[in-house]
Amino acid sequence: GMGSVVNVTTSLNVLNQAGTGPGEIDLTGVVVGMNIDNSMTLDGTNGDLVINIGAIAPISASFLNVGSGDVLTLGSHVIVAESNAVSSVQLGNVSTGGTIINDGTMNFTAEVGVAQIDPDSFTNAGTITISNLTSVAVTPLNGLTNAASGQIVMNLGTLDLACASGPTDLEGTI
Fold it and tell me: Quick count: other Cβ atoms within 10 Å of Cβ 85?
């Protein structure tokens, strides 16, 4: 829809209609997003949880934000997928001080897309794929880690890695 925001304040378990496997989160409309205002792990149940994200730019970005002082872990059975060509994606803070940990898969592969990952702290221990002339900026304020298990795979895309202050650890594969 247009102008829809979901605020999650306790926990979230996303299941399919039968309740037996993973569901899907679609954040693909104009000014559509989800604020996670609690520390939690999102992960698939009996399969992969797909989070489709990306509003057609430059109208507005679709977003997935984490609350102040909260940690959002995207589990190993989560796939964040930029879903529309020429789309804009934002993964960041509701206000300040949030942390996002990616243990799953992030695919920024929609044609000529733009993505900004800028919570207070970001750790990639999973896989990030960038292709099809998509531009991704990973610019947290106070901590940037590409862990030993982290992989960033590039194929005709651009990547900006920068951290304003705090530690930067890029021991994973780029």
Answer: 16
